[in-house]
Specification:
- The structure holds two protein chains of two kinds.
- Chain A is mainly α.
- Among the domains of chain A are: 260 residues, no CATH class; 77 residues, no CATH class; 182 residues, no CATH class.
- Chain A is built from 42 helices and four strands.
- Chain A has a two-stranded antiparallel ribbon with strand order 1-2. In chain A, strands 3-4 form a two-stranded antiparallel ribbon.
- In chain A, α15 runs antiparallel to α16, α15 crosses α18 and α31 packs across α32.
- The C terminus of chain A is likely disordered.
- By secondary structure, chain B is mostly helical.
- Chain B contains 20 helices and two strands.
- In chain B, α2 runs parallel beside α4.
- The longest helix of chain B is centred in the middle third of the chain and has 32 residues.
- The chains are: A mainly alpha, B mainly alpha.
- Chains A and B meet through β1, α6, α7, α25 and α26 of A and α1, β1, α4, α5 and α6 of B.
Chain lengths: 948, 502
């Protein structure tokens, strides 16, 4: 069976889970188990090829841009892990059918299948990125499996995800560094690169990163707490997790990369010290536990510590030991976990303090657990004995001085004593000791018991015939770059490791005779807090940091948010200007005649206007100051000789002030801003920014000849377009696309006003009455009826204005038409003309006694839409020649005309429309019905946050 | 596709906007769906075209090159058009489903926004870029204040003010560029000496304005304040369009005009990595889904722009890849939140619980979306993260560990933030049994037991998510486009030639 098909079949499993679970419920485990066994069988031909010394590779391109491939490779090491994942997976599935509750169990089977996929993908991957992807999938799958075990497991699953995620990140960094430095994404090529011998510094960095990644998954100190935490998951999940999947992924990674790192001192030291420390520490913790499952979890941590240390030693014997112990551990640990589930099912608890003497009703289970724990404790003639003894023996080969090896062996021996002790505690606690009566306990069913017992029982014959593993383990060790494997034998002679094992068994047995005293001794926690507490502490601190960050910008006032960009701008202008001034090359000289006396006067006026606007406390005063500034700018434009721009600016200023005045009627008369009492900061910022902008303007502008486009416009503009007014032809011909955009902006501003106001009830737009009432009081106090009428009666009040209108409006309209027409050749054009017409509209509006809109309803929207449409249509006419917005020329009645005139009509309509919208929508007087008053009392910002 | 058709990508939505204001609502709503579909189709057509023709340019109005405003499309443009068009379509469909599109002139405003986006993506002229950004902004001023909580009006003001200030800075920058270089045509500006400090200062001001729009730290604060107060639909639109167009312009201008070569790269990398970190952890401090996501937008901006900071072909390509991923996933997550709000009237953590069992479809969509954001397989985020890490590995010394460190710490922050969101919203007791945490105005609305989402409200989010998943399975084409786009940014010969000779 090819590797791609194996992965495809495994990828199909999660999909098949949906129909299977809906048809069979929890019994979906049977077809899945059969499928897994069938896949394992189908892999036998490939496996045989590998055992004969070959290797199978397959590559499909995935992301060619980064040379990432779905590259698969089956070698000896991969074969061992594939078989573990498939066979243990099948056993776990069989067991789950009986163990799980009578429901669909979709999540369980789905994530278990995904888990198996990730694990098999991981050990087959020959692409470094694919390896990382599968690594992450196993992280995710374990998180999901733990999380689905009820609310108690949720925070535990989050901690698990966090730990494995951190390891994933270090792995990612390691693999991208490897890809860049070794120049290939292929793992097998990368691991055999010369880089690892040529660049020791780099190698050490990558080795540490990989080691950390391996430690997080293999639950090595200080990343171990997640594994006991993950006990919250259902028992079959734990069995798979501990025996075949996540933690074995960590071991696989360390084994795989030992090809490159087995001679790197950092790698040796780190793995041996962390591994042995973890082994001893976790064994002690395991001995402390009452909950059988937690005990098992710590025992896994401890056993993996031994394997890690062996990988760290990195010699042939050590690697052989690591591989064979991985196999042994997968068998006895998966079995033991499932047996804990069997005990749990039978007695209703896993707490050894509450378990009765189960051996009386469960003799077979008793025997099975004895066998399993014996393997764990390394008692002959089991497979666990062979592997454990080899690990102990390999410790003496640890690189460095001879005492280091002795020390390592001593540490491993100490761990073995504890291992024996906790193994005995399992047996004695569950089956021998206990005061509870047996009446509510029952023996397990065969369907639950057999899949659990099978992995343990096979350890017995395998231990006796350990030679069958010689070839597979040799191939696996060869895959890690060693020339040959150390031969596996049950009896190694009287080696030091045998003595250590014997001593450990003796010491452990001696300890257990005084177990009650010992249990009391270790009852209290050694440490002030658990690893989970420490992690929760980290999460808590991270959240606090998060709140600090989000609070730091928690203001809706624009002031808070405008300041940072302005500070950065000031810094940029300052640093940039300094860079210009200190650069070696001279700044080009300024062009002549840039300054005139009038500029200084206008600058002072503009500055005064700005200061006045900022200092004003009354809104009206601010508006007047703003208007003054605008007029001064207008004068400046005229002084510069830009009548078109100047005229436009003038009209815009006038209309802006008008619109602002209308809005002001709805706002309080005064700003009431208190911040002006402490103007230091804003003043410094404004001053700095002003100076920066001034210097930058002085340095960057006015220092070159006319630009190429300017020369072109002057030389060719009129010739090309037939218009004498260059400003106008630039606007409506050369850069008509800009004008089209601005036209849309202006026109749609009207639509925007209508759209926003339509979503807000009009009464909420008005402030409470008291803010504008005072102004009316003097009027009401007037006794003289005529004087009073003059101020309050709109009709008589407006007579003069209405009279004026009759003269002014026609004049304005004619003026507007003239300005429009002459625009192409002289100052004028659609924009200015429309603003003039708008002035007429404004006058008409102001002369009305009521707030009715000028013109029929929706005429303004029609003008806007029509205007934009006209401009667009004109642009499309250009396609008749070659391009959008290309002006076409023709002569009508002796006058040279351009389609851009039509474009200008669009401008005219849209501008007029938007001004009419402004008057219509913003001009309506505030309403004063009593209901509105109370509604308006509640300020908008304080209303409930919720969707409206 | 030929160059002369490029203006239609602006004209069609703008035409829709103008017509939409005049015709009855039903027709306008039909047009507003059609418009981004056409944009997407245009983007795809351009992608096909650029396989043979790397750059298409068109001088609008038929004037001579250098005088006319050029509209230009290369692979970068085409990818952006396609993905923004796709996301806009999803947002609009969602607005139709929730009824938001029935608000008066909503279709018109959205179509104008699209026109601005398309124009800004295609223009080869800096002043024209300013104009199209204004075309984007104006309808946005209205959209942000039309739907959402009452706070939308207050933050609408914030949004307007910050954008007016930013547009002013942008305009000043363009003015200074013209002052120094005598042109605002990007192809012409490539002739400028990128080491001239005067030119650099001018372009620097321009880029500053764009980074404010993008929400780069320390100028980010307005974004997580303003966006969550409007509706989910509008926020999703803005997330896909506003910040991303600003980023697009940074890529384009930094590479094309400044030639990408500057010793301020380290400074840029510091700023961008800081943006990643601040965004990731700011997300952790919030108690509302969309506020948390708003900070993720900032983090995403950091991730994307780090590509510019790296500055190599792979760096730019990785940034672009991340941008495509981020647009899609952020759109999916925001629209999912919108669906939650549509059914449950809140997106506050305190008002939501136990949604995993209550709304399994939503849970799947959001879980995958969040996984994508964190960078887990099987999603586009996986390759986004991997390609950035791969590109960063080409750096040396301080820069290398700066980016790796930030990538690690920021990823952890995002993981924690998303775990928290998940734990608060999807785990926990069924909503009816939630302990009352009534504290005045934040008291969660009472949820009737039979309240469930309607599945169709999840369709747009699900569709965007599917694209993200598809990118994981078949990342090849997108990777190819991103590389091609990065090549186009590094080697501007084809771009310049196309603009100056067409």
């Amino acid at each position: 069976m090819t590797l791609v098909w194996l992965l495809a079949a495994l990828a199909a499993a999660p999909v098949l889970v949906f129909p299977l679970t809906s048809a069979l419920g929890r019994r979906a485990g049977w077809p899945l188990a059969i499928g897994f066994l069938a896949l394992a069988a189908a892999m036998i031909p490939s496996g045989r090829e590998v055992l004969d010394g070959g290797e199978i590779t397959q590559t499909v391109a995935w992301l060619p841009a980064l040379d990432i491939n779905l590259a698969l490779r089956l070698d000896g090491l991969g074969l061992v892990f594939v078989m573990i994942a498939l066979v243990i997976g099948a056993a776990v599935f069989l067991y789950s059918v009986e163990y799980l509750g009578e429901s669909r169990q979709l999540g369980f089977y789905l994530w278990m299948a995904a888990f198996a996929l990730g694990m098999v993908g991981l050990v087959l991957a020959d692409d470094l990125i694919l390896l990382f992807a599968c690594w992450e999938i196993t992280s995710l799958a374990s998180f999901l499996l733990i999380a689905r075990s009820g609310s108690g497991a949720e925070s535990a699953s989050a901690r698990t995800l966090f730990m494995t995620f951190v390891g994933g990140l270090t792995l990612l960094i390691a693999v991208v560094l490897m890809i860049v430095t070794t120049g290939t994404t292929s793992m097998s090529q990368s691991l055999t690169s010369d880089v690892w011998t040529d660049r020791p510094g780099f190698t050490a960095v990558v080795a540490v990163l990989v080691a950390v990644a391996g430690f997080t998954k293999a639950a090595q100190f200080p990343f171990h707490p997640w594994l006991p935490d993950a006990m919250a998951a259902a028992t079959p999940v734990s069995a798979y997790l501990h025996a075949a999947a996540v933690v074995k992924a960590g071991i696989y990674l360390l084994l795989r990369f030992s090809e490159a790192f087995s001679d790197v001192p950092v790698w040796n030291t780190l793995l041996i010290s962390v591994g042995l420390f973890t082994a001893a520490m976790a064994a002690l913790f395991a001995f402390q536990q009452h909950d059988l499952k937690r005990l098992m979890a710590y025992s896994t941590v401890s056993q993996l510590g031994l394997i890690t240390a062996a990988i760290g030693v990195g010699t042939e014997k050590a690697l052989t030991a690591a591989v064979i112990h991985t196999i042994a551990h997968a068998l006895f640990k998966s079995g033991l976990f499932m047996m804990v589930g069997v005990i749990d099912h039978s007695a209703g608890t896993r707490d050894i303090r509450r378990l009765p003497e189960l051996r009386r009703i469960m003799p077979w289970s008793f025997a099975t657990v004895i066998l399993g724990t014996a393997g764990m404790a390394g008692i002959p003639p089991l497979l666990g004995f062979v592997s454990k003894e080899m690990i102990l023996g390999s410790m003496l080969e640890a690189p460095g001085p001879a005492w280091a090896g002795m020390l390592a062996l001593a540490a491993a021996g100490a761990g073995s004593v504890l291992t024996f002790a906790y193994s005995a505690k399992i047996v004695l606690g569950a089956f021998v000791d206990g005061k509870r009566e047996l009446k509510d306990c029952h023996g397990p069913s065969a369907r639950l018991f057999l899949p659990a017992a099978a992995p343990i029982w096979v350890g017995l014959p395998l231990g006796l015939t350990v030679g069958v593993f010689n070839t597979p383990v040799e191939r696996a060790v060869q895959a890690m770059g060693s020339s040959a494997a150390y031969p596996l034998k049950l009896w190694h002679g009287l080696a030091p490791e045998l003595l250590v094992t014997a001593a450990a068994i003796a010491a452990g047995a001696a300890l257990m005779t005084r177990r009650r005293a010992l249990y009391r001794l270790v009852e209290n926690d050694f440490l002030p807090g658990t690893g989970a507490d420490a992690l929760e502490r980290i999460f808590h601190e991270a959240r606090r940091l998060g709140r600090t960050i989000s609070k730091s910008v928690a203001a809706d006032h624009p002031r808070r948010h405008v300041v940072p960009p302005l500070i950065v701008l000031t810094l940029l202008l300052g640093v940039g200007s300094l860079a210009v001034l200190t650069a070696g090359d001279d700044v080009p000289a300024t062009q002549p005649d840039l300054w005139r006396p009038v500029d200084v006067g206008l600058l002072v006026l503009i500055a005064l206007g700005v200061v006045g606007t900022c200092r004003a406390d009354s809104r009206i005063a601010a508006t007047v100051s703003l208007g003054a500034t605008g007029i001064a700018v207008t004068v400046q434009l005229f002084a510069l000789g830009a009548p078109d721009v100047g005229l436009t600016q003038l009209m815009v200023e006038v209309l802006t002030v008008l619109v602002i005045m209308m809005v002001l009627r709805r706002l309080p008369g005064r700003f009431g801003h208190s911040h002006l009492r402490r103007p230091g900061g804003p003043l410094v910022l404004a001053g700095g920014l002003g100076i920066g902008a001034g210097v930058a303007t002085w340095l960057l502008t006015g220092r070159r000849e006319k630009s190429v486009p300017a020369d072109y416009y002057l030389a060719e503009g009129t010739k090309v377009t037939g218009g004498d007014n260059l400003v106008n032809v630039i606007l409506v011909e050369f850069r008509a696309l800009d004008t089209l955009g601005e036209l849309a902006v202006l026109g749609l501003a009207g639509v925007a006003i209508v759209a926003v106001l339509a979503t807000v009830p009009s009464r909420t737009l008005d402030p409470p009455r008291r803010t504008h009432r005072p102004s009316l009081r003097p009027v009401q106090a007037l006794r003289d009826p005529q004087a009073r009428a003059a101020l309050t009666d709109p009709q008589s009040n407006l007579r003069a204005l209405q009279l004026l209108l009759r003269v002014v409006v026609p004049v304005l309209l004619v003026l507007s038409a003239v300005i429009f027409w002459r625009g192409h050749n002289a100052p004028g054009g659609g924009f200015i003309a429309a603003l003039v017409a708008s002035a007429a509209v404004a006058l008409v509006y102001l002369s009305r006694p009521d707030d009715r809109a000028v013109g029929p309803p929706r005429v303004h929207i029609a003008l806007i839409g029509g205007g934009v449409l006209t401009a667009l249509a004109t642009g499309l006419i250009g396609y008749a020649d070659s391009s959008f917005l290309q002006p076409l020329y023709g002569t009508v009645a002796g006058t040279k005309l351009s389609t851009s005139l039509l474009f200008d009509v669009g401008v005219y309509a849209a501008v007029l429309g938007v001004v009419m919208v402004a008057f219509d929508r913003l001009g309506a007087a505030p309403e004063h019905d009593p209901d509105a008053e109370s509604a308006a009392e509640a300020p908008l910002g304080r209303t409930k946050e919720g969707i409206v | 596709m030929t160059g002369s058709l490029l203006p239609l990508l602006v004209v069609v939505p703008l035409l829709g906007a103008a017509l939409g204001a005049l015709v009855p609502g039903g027709i306008a709503r039909a047009m507003v769906v059609l418009s981004p579909v056409l944009t997407t189709a245009g983007g795809v057509a351009l992608l096909v075209t650029h396989r043979d023709t790397p750059v298409l340019a068109h001088e609008v109005g038929g004037f001579i090159p250098g005088i006319a405003i050029p509209l230009v499309s290369d692979t970068f443009t085409a990818v952006m058009l396609t993905v923004t068009g796709l996301t806009t379509t999803a947002c609009i469909v969602f607005a139709l489903i929730t009824g938001e599109a029935r608000l008066r002139y909503f279709p018109t405003l959205v179509m104008m926004l699209s026109a601005g986006v398309n124009g800004a993506l295609m223009t080869g002229d800096l002043f024209n870029l300013f104009v199209f950004i204004e075309v984007m902004l104006l309808p946005s001023y209205a959209l942000i204040a039309m739907t959402g909580t009452w706070r939308r009006l207050g933050v609408g003001r914030l949004f307007v003010v910050i954008n007016l200030v930013t547009s002013t800075i942008l305009l000043v920058g363009i003015g200074l560029v013209y002052g120094v270089a005598g042109s605002v045509n990007m192809a012409v500006l490539t002739d400028m000496d990128a080491d001239d400090p005067r030119f650099r200062l001018a372009v620097g001001v321009l880029l500053l304005a764009l980074t404010v729009k993008a929400g780069v730290v320390p100028m980010h604060g307005w974004l997580p304040r303003a966006y969550p107060a409007t509706s989910a639909t509008v926020m999703a639109l803005f997330s896909a369009l506003h910040t991303k167009v600003a980023i697009y312009a940074v890529f384009r201008i930094h590479q094309t005009v400044l030639d990408g070569a500057a010793e301020w790269m380290t400074l840029l990398l510091v700023l961008f990595t800081l943006t990643m970190l601040v965004g990731a952890y700011g997300s952790l401090g919030e108690r509302m889904i969309r506020r948390s996501l708003a900070w993720q937008m900032i983090a995403g901006v950091g991730y994307i722009l780090v590509g510019v900071g790296i500055g190599t072909e792979l760096g730019l390509a990785a940034g672009l890849f991340y941008m495509v991923h981020h647009i899609l996933v952020m759109g999916s997550l925001l629209l999912s939140s919108g669906a939650i709000e549509h059914a449950y009237r809140t997106n506050q953590f305190v008002g939501l619980a136990g949604l995993m069992r209550r709304e399994p479809v939503l849970a799947v969509i959001m879980a995958l979306g969040m996984m994508s954001l964190i960078g887990f397989p099987p999603s586009s985020g996986f390759f986004g993260k991997v390609s950035l890490a791969r590109a960063a590995a080409d750096l040396d010394g301080f820069q290398l560990w700066l980016v790796f460190g930030a990538l690690t710490v920021a990823s952890i922050g995002t993981l924690l933030a998303m775990s928290r969101l998940w734990a608060d919203v999807f785990w926990g007791p069924p909503m009816e049994e939630m302990p009352s945490r009534g504290r005045g105005r934040t008291e969660p609305p009472v949820v009737p037991e039979d309240t469930r989402m309607r599945l169709r409200t999840l369709v747009p989010a699900g569709a965007l998510l599917l694209v993200s998943l598809a990118i994981f399975v078949v990342p090849g084409p997108l990777g190819e486009w991103c590389l091609q786009a990065a090549d186009g940014l590094l080697d501007v010969t084809a771009y310049v030639e196309s603009v100056t000779t067409s």
